[in-house]
Amino acid sequence: MPVGESDKGFGAEKGQLYYGIQSHYTSIDWWHDPVKGEPFKHSGSLNTFILRPSIVYGISDKYNLTLSSTLGIRSMNWNQSNVSIHHRTESSASDFHNANGGILGDSKVMIRYLIKNQGDGPGFRIFSGGGITIPSNNQLTSDPYFLNKDEVKEHRHFSLSNGTYNYNIETQIYYKRPANPIFFGGFIILERPFSESKYGYLPPVNLNIALSMIYKRFDSIDSSIGYGFNILHTGQGYWNDIPAPNTKSTSISPSISFLFGSRFGAIALNLQKPIFIDGAFTSNEGDMDQGSNIWRFSISLRGMPLN
Question: pTM for this one?
Answer without folding.
Answer: 0.90
